[in-house]
Design brief:
Elements: E1 5-12, H1 16-29, E2 30-36, H2 39-49, E3 53-56, H3 65-75, E4 81-85, H4 90-98, E5 103-106, H5 111-136, H6 138-146, H7 150-163, E6 169-172, H8 179-189, E7 197-201, H9 207-215, E8 216-217, E9 229-230, H10 232-235, E10 240-244, H11 251-263, E11 265-266, E12 275-276, E13 280-285, H12 289-294, H13 300-306, E14 309-312, H14 322-337, E15 344-345, H15 347-355, H16 361-375, E16 379-380, H17 382-390, H18 408-422, H19 427-434, H20 438-447
Parallel strand pairs: 1-2, 1-3, 3-4, 4-5, 6-13, 6-14, 7-10, 10-13, 15-16
Antiparallel strand pairs: 8-9, 11-12
């Protein structure tokens, strides 16, 4: 199987021997490599083939690398260009910076440094492709956005099946696990995806304000109601209404929600005529709503009306390799927002993330990776993360370790999972990271059914 990265690289170099040697190295890593001996030839190839990354010398006869890069910028501003040159005159380097060059690699060339520069420059390209592919493919999108760990596979199966229906859904899980995100994904895979997805956090609103927010009001319904206003049930007509922290609604408000869901109609505050709506309702809670209902803290009839399906979102600490995948995705997304090349995550950083307890779950992980993207250099190490993780609001000093002792077999299995996560699933590299021979590593994979 060809493990080369599916990228097209254009390499422009006027020195024939060097051009051939570097071409051979690049072809070991990338699926398509094309070469040119001058800036003019390179520009012509670029216009015809539209490569993903351009690597070029600066000083060449005829059209030099700077002029070629300038014209490439006019054709495709987002294509990264990397310069390789022994020419270090300040004026030329400043012109290269003005052109927005992705990297500068000095000659004589260190091919490892060149490959590393290309990898960094290509990260946004590969991420955009992954996002496009995930959004175009239903199964891929769920696994990409939710994760592929065993703990999330049941969630993926449930979400895929329920999305095709108009059933109401209860999503439960700890704070920060991504309940509203899952609700949005279900809506996006449903037949209602072209209509609104409207969110309201019940716990953030006083009861009087919540009623007006959900159901709207007519002019003069109360002091300050100088005009009529649509409620969120009506705003979500044809689409989905997501009620977060639904357990915080008062018994009276729960009764009104039940009426609206059952009869698909409601009375705006102060109105005498009902409003008809077609809305799917998804609710979320960080409590077990059935337990709350049986304890008398939540209307049992509302629970059974909403709970056509109950999806339990597991905490991040139970999601294994998803931690590394989510961390890398957040790091890349934030880096794109900051218009910078995403830092590469060192294996020790990935291992550190996998060992955290994450009391704030996915929300906490995203917060950490935001700050990491802002402050990290080209490589994100465990040392870089140490201060960021420790400084996370609400985190206690002892939250980085497990609350119970693991068995030796559990520790070994976790080490294998963490090594695979740190190396992107590359088994030989994972074996080297654990300092075991490859045959022993394969036996560990079979033993732990990984």
């Amino acid at each position: 199987m060809d493990d080369r990265v599916l990228l097209k690289i254009l390499y422009v170099e006027d020195e024939p021997d060097l051009r051939e040697r570097v071409r051979i190295v690049l072809e070991m890593e990338y699926a398509t490599v094309v070469t040119a001996a001058s800036g003019g030839d390179g520009l012509a190839l670029f216009a015809r083939l539209r490569p993903d990354v351009v690597v070029s010398d600066i000083m060449m006869p005829g059209m030099d690398g700077l002029e070629m890069a300038r014209r490439i910028r006019e054709l495709s501003p987002e294509t990264p260009v990397i310069f390789t040159t022994a020419f270090t005159e300040t004026g030329y380097l400043l012109k290269a910076i003005e052109l927005g060059i992705a990297a500068y690699v000095r000659k004589p060339l260190d091919c490892r440094e060149l490959l590393d520069s290309i990898r960094r420059a290509a990260i946004p390209i590969l991420q955009r492709r992954e996002l496009e592919q995930a959004r175009a493919n239903e199964q891929g999108s769920l696994e990409f956005f939710l994760g592929e760990s065993p703990a999330m596979q049941q969630v993926v199966r449930q979400a895929r099946k329920i999305a095709r229906t108009d059933f109401s859904v209860v999503i439960q899980g700890e704070t920060g696990v991504g309940k509203s995100h899952l609700g949005w994904l279900i809506h996006g895979l449903s037949g209602r995806r072209h209509f609104p997805f409207v969110t309201v956090t019940v716990s953030s609103l006083a009861e009087t304000l919540l009623e007006s927010q959900l159901f709207g009001h007519v002019k003069g319904a109360f002091t300050g109601a100088v005009g009529a206003r649509k409620g969120l049930f009506e705003e979500a007509h044809g689409g989905t209404l997501f009620l977060d922290d639904v357990d915080c609604a008062s018994p009276g408000m729960q009764a009104k929600i039940l009426h609206a869901v059952e009869r698909k109609s409601f009375f705006p505050v102060g109105a005498t005529k009902p409003v008809q709506v077609d809305v799917r309702v998804i609710v979320a809670s960080n409590r077990d709503l059935l337990t709350e209902a049986r304890a008398g803290n939540f209307r049992e009839d509302l629970y059974y009306r909403l709970a056509d399906l109950v999806i339990e979102l597991p905490p991040l600490r139970e999601r294994g390799q998803d931690v590394a995948a989510l961390a890398e995705r957040f790091l890349n997304e934030v880096s794109l927002e900051l218009d910078r090349v995403p830092p590469r995550m060192a294996p020790d950083a990935v291992l550190m993330l996998a060992r955290q307890r994450w009391p704030g779950n996915v929300r906490e992980l995203k917060s950490v990776m935001k700050r990491a993207a802002l402050f990290a250099d080209e490589t994100l190490s465990a040392d870089d993360l140490a201060g960021i993780v420790t400084a996370t609001p609400g985190r206690r000093a002892d939250e980085g370790s497990s609350s119970r002792l693991q068995s030796l077999e559990e520790i070994k299995r976790d080490a294998v999972l963490q090594a695979l996560a740190a190396t992107g699933g590359k088994k030989m590299e994972a074996a080297r990271l654990l300092e075991v021979d490859y045959s022993s590593f394969k036996r560990m994979l079979e033993k732990y059914r990984l």
